[in-house]
Amino acid sequence: MSKRLIGLLTPIIAVLLGIIVGTIIMLASGYDPVAAYSALWNGAFGEIYYTGEVIRQVTPYILAGLAVAFAFRVGLFNIGVEGQFLVGWLAAVWVGISFDLPKIIHLPLAIIAAAVAGALWAFIPGLLKARLRVHEVIVTIMLNYTALHVSNYIIKNVLTDHKDKTGLVKDSATLRSEWLQGITDYSRLHWGIIVAIICCFIMWFLLERTTRGFELRAVGFNQHAAQYAGMNVNRNIILSMVISGAFAGLAGAMEGLGTFGYVTVKGGFTGVGFDGIAIALLGGNSALGVFFSAILFGALKVGALNMPLEAGVPNELVDIIIALIVFFVASSYIIRKLLDRFGKKEVK
Fold this sequence. Notes:
This protein is mainly α and 348 residues long. Helices cover 78% and strands 0% of the residues.
């Protein structure tokens, strides 16, 4: 069995195993798994409104997954996507409510502001990793909390007069579309999905078709070998974190300029950045894999909201299924070994 086929089958098997074990848990808990999965499907694709909401949810998931996957490809673990997501959201709304500009200028400016904010937030751990060899996981975890509380302070004391919510971004900076909302029965679907798809192409092209991408991947494979070959390892570490942060900041812009149109004081993390880790793992850290993985996670998250209503099953069971999928993806070495052994038996 070829390595490419094994690579394709591994995440599919992980998803199936997660669903199977989730089914066993439902049966053990006294719930009807058939009714639960039917409600899940209906809540995700049963009506055009739900489908629009799935695509809306998928949009930031794609970008958060790309952020984690890009860092992984360069041998880094950017667990700070959540913080970069928050500062990107804040920056996008800040620009969106602060200027009066034509839409052709205002909207791109707000999106770029989010990418720059996320990139600058990721630059800090990248610099510390490159110069002082401080582990990026520690720094990014700390910066998540810093981003949360700094964002809340700015919202309450800079963007508003001690309020918990800003005003709506101006029409010239919004990603919302009456046409998209109309064809999806007034869901919150917006043009951000186009931005996410473009970013998938950018990541693929950058890593697979450019010299810089080759250097970044080489650093991820072996830093010492890359340095011996004359590559600037420190610069590539910083660059990879900056690009990863830019993707995360764009994910925040999708929420600030599209889904909500404002930013609020938050009592805790949104979870989008942390879901991006699971999405990247399931997607094999490739742009195409992240795209399909984000669709699965978006459908699970939106469809789960219908499970208590239609089947009387707690939607927290979907979180258990997602955790099981991640567990089996993390155990992909075992799955790969079994597939490889099965393939050798077939050849004999």
